[in-house]
Amino acid sequence: MNHLYYGDCLEIMQGMKLGSVDLIYLDPPFNSNQTYNAIYKDETGQPLPEQVEAFCDIWELNDERQRAINLMPVLMREAGLDDAAAELWKLWMNALRNTQPRLLAYLSYMTERLIVMKSILKPTGSIYLHCDATASHYIKVLMDSIFGHNNFVNEIIWERSHTRSSISKSLRRAHDVILFYVMGSKYKFNMQYRKLSEASLGIYTKVDEKGLYRLVPLLVSGKRNGITGKPWRGIDPNSRGKQGMHWVTTHDKLEAYNTRGLIVWPKIKDGAPNLKYYLDTNKGVPLNDIWTDVSAISSNSPESLGYPTQKPLSLMKRIISLATDEGDTVLDPFCGCATTICAAQEMNRKWKGIDIAYHAIRRVVQARLADRYSLVEGVHYTVDGIPKTAEAAHDLWLRDKYQFQRWAIETIDGFVSAKRTGDGGVDGNLYFPTEGGKTLESMTLEVKGGANVGIGVVRELKGVMQRVGCSMAGLIVRDDAVSGIKRRNFEREMLDAGDLEYFGTKYRRMQMLTVSEILEGKRFHTPSVAGRTGRQGNLALV
Known about the structure:
By secondary structure, the protein is of the alpha/beta class.
């Protein structure tokens, strides 16, 4: 069965079977130092504030990254990589720590994941890594270290932009890079072909009962000492031309062509035979490593889902065609809007997609799998990693507190703060339009996954709401953290914050939800939430 996973691809891939994937295509963050939150403009009607994390591509050398960087040589050796790779990493670490700390943070993030990707590829498998000039040269060195320089096949240049706009002090950036590596010499590869040009089609000028054809010489310049330089059917190639000639193939193949009636014999003395080459046998022009015939998706394309880095379906189909056969397994560890999954589905491949954003997973399930392909969860695919019970949610909190926070906020249609630390008490926000509809107001959100939550949390959240200028505030807690009398005390404290009147309806400025209530489908009672898919708040005033 096909699988869609919610969570960090590192942890999920670590749980996959070794040597189980035929192709990995990844379009990871590019270290471009940008926050891609335009994806949700069509959900909110407005671009989200910059603190929102929506495909955030900003890297920070924090304590978590520092630990990963220090452990990297050990991880490399445990993965069986050459000691030289670990030594190279140490050199980079020392060189970049003070000069380009964000680049170092990004490279450590990618290295952790690339090591695991190698372990789950089949011996015949391949990996296509999509990147740009920001860090492609560093990534290529990493790929050489992890997959082996001998397993590098191509650096593909994809011309994604054909616009002619100019920039005053640089050349227009018009291409991405796709690095193509394999696991070994027995990798699977199916050559693809481009259509013939009009000029090439124009040389097929002859026709018989089998169709259009052109004549191709069977003798070409240059002497050969082997079989292709020997006489055949009374014609000595060495006696032709100024410096001799040779047959384009061996005598047995020439005989086969002749038996099939494909050779046109000369009508004049000393003429040379030619081969009939039919148009319908020409597969086209073999693909090279510069791809100029696949355009990027425009914002008004029916294919567009609003992702600023969305790749065209035709690009994914080309890569899948090159690297796999029907029934093979394709993995996209950063599946985003799931173009790779769509291509795999249409081409009868098995697929696995991973994304760390619940909003992305929800979009994939609805806009791609259900609406486009009429696929049913549990029948055609599974969605793994999304807690469906309070126990599973608690387990997620124990394993990854930040991912628990993301799940809780995104499940109730909120957007996560980009800052993991120093967020000023703001873990995320719900957004709703002002009465004029031109801007967004928000409910600030705080998540507490532990069992010990005191009344002081409510008072602090009230202060945060006032400090950051939010209209409302929401608290998400575990069920056992605020039960019975404790919950009533919390709600009494929240009542003191008063109400928000919006289009004649009153909403409590401060509200609370437990994990179980979220799993039951309850949501904060707010004005129409930007991004909410038809659900209504159900914590009405009493």
